Amino acid sequence: MKTTHRSSWAPRWPITWQRSYATARQWWLESDGRVDWAALDVETEFEGEALGRWVQAQRGAFAVLDQEQQDLLAAIGVEEDQELAAARAKVAARPNKSRSDRFAAGLAALASFVAEHGHPRVPRTHRQPLALEVGSGGDVTPFALGTWLNNTKSRRSRLTPDQLAQLAEHGVEWA
Q: Which pLDDT does position 8 carry in this prediction?
């Protein structure tokens, strides 16, 4: 009696992935196996599927795919995109900032804005230059202060009394 691999009849991944893979495989077969997946335009569609977008996503997330998915992709010549994988690893390696860290960064940007302009009325689209953490080479990055202040106001019921007091110290009226 012939044994069937579990993945061939009940894969662990979503059926949408399987359908997109089948489309990619059909493209590959119709191209006689001569497909340069890396050069495939991201806007490419085939049989109603966004094939280019799907292939790019698979190449970027290759390392986190199930081994059987990797094997299926490799069988039709789809390989990991090293640049996308490196970018994904860089994002994953960044330390997660806690809410208090984000609040502290927002407060520092607000203090800088108030010192510069003399008031806390920050335009919604304003981005305040803010020095990054120690060890970053002293880089300065724009902090979306207007957005942060607007979001903080809408979530003020979740702020601690200390956080509200800190905002009030910088002249924020609603704090």
A: 56
